[in-house]
Amino acid sequence: MADNDLITLADRDDAMTAPLPPSVRSYRVNSGDGIAGLRLRTHEPLPPGIGEVAVAVHAVSLSFRDLLVLRGQYVLPVKSDVIPVSEGAGQVIAVGPGVRRVRPGDRVTAALFPQWLDGPLQPSYLPQLGGSLDGMLTELAVLPEQALVPIPEHLSYAEAATLPCAAVTAWNALTGDGPGIQPGHTVLATGSGGVSLFAVQLATLLGARVIATTGQVEKEQRLRDLGADEVVNYRAVPDWPAAVRDLTGGRGVDRVVDTAGTLEQSLRSLAVNGHVAFVGSLSGDWPPLDPRLLFGVAATVRALAVGSRAQFLKLNEVITAHQLRPVTDRAFPFAQAAEAFRHYESARPFGKVVIEVR
């Protein structure tokens, strides 16, 4: 690539130059090798090509999807020797030919599915960061311009890094079916993982009554502090769907954001014509389901695959308007990426686990 093919800040009247570094570090892993398979490598940076942007990554955050990639359990194809992690945020330092929407110096995140710009998910949109495409656990990510999303001004890089997977999934769960959540609706968010915490925050902003579940007493008040009107401890109350129905006067909730794979219990918590936004299963188990549970409440069950770039942009409008701040649990330095994954896997964090890259 010729030197004049790169547009840097020096090419702009109001800009300063930010050249590519002589070398960068990236983590690599083969799916199925687990956390122990993470390898840190130093290599020359790739300059951005046509329509591509070089982003100096400042922070990434971990999601359950990333653990599934490392374990070899992810539902979509994963390339060999992949740079893992789908969620990250950083600053543009160089752009390739034809790039017009961003410029060096911009603070950005990236949509997990770079080709899914808007509308329903299509097979051609399935390439994803940290899976079939290299992800964000690197000092320098080269990304398609169309994937980039501006960071809300009030958020730090660490906070912005929590948005692309967890927050977009929660937003899709609440609004992605057309009319979405309306003021006065009741939403049930299961568990206290990253998607659920965003669901509690966002459903509250949308005017819903929010019920949350947790298995840990120490998290009950923290969920209320985020906006949950009621919290049900499923360890103290094993028949928690009955408790949810009691809290709604026997009616049930309008929507369940099911992040734990408890589909049977979610349906038992649901009102007639209710909606289950089905995010996945933490255990990896998929127990059989009695179809009568679906017919009994005329339920809609919608499986989610994060969301589109258009949904991400709309989410950021809401985040900015309400000055919402993501919940983070703990930050690790880049050199301790494996320790960050182990903490995320075993410590039952409340909030997103972040790796600070620089």
Description:
This protein is α/β, with parallel strands linked by helices. Strands 3, 4, 5, 6, 7, 14 and 15 form a 7-stranded mixed beta sheet that branches. Residues 1-17 have low confidence and may be disordered. The radius of gyration is 21 Å and the shape is globular. 25% of the residues lie in helices and 24% in strands. The chain has helices spanning 64-71, 157-160, 163-175, 194-205, 217-226, 240-247, 263-268, 291-296, 309-322, 337-346; strands at 24-28, 39-43, 52-61, 87-95, 107-110, 140-144, 148-150, 186-189, 209-214, 230-233, 253-258, 270-278, 300-303, 328-333, 352-356. It folds into 2 domains: 3-162 and 326-356, Quinone Oxidoreductase, Chain A, domain 1 (Alpha-Beta Complex); 168-303, Rossmann fold, CATH 3.40.50.720.
Q: What does this entry show, briefly?
A:
The protein has 358 residues and is of the alpha/beta class. It has ten helices and 15 strands.
Extract low-pLDDT stretches: 1-17
The end-to-end distance, rounded to whole angstroms, is: 27 Å
Principal-axis shape: globular
Helix % is 25-40%
Structural class of the helices, strands and pairings? alpha/beta
Number of domains: 2
Q: Which fold name corresponds to the CATH topology of the largest domain? A: Quinone Oxidoreductase, Chain A, domain 1
CATH architecture of the largest domain: Alpha-Beta Complex
- What's the pLDDT, averaged over the residues? 93
Provide the succession of SSEs: EEEHEEEEHHEHEHEHEHEHEHEHE
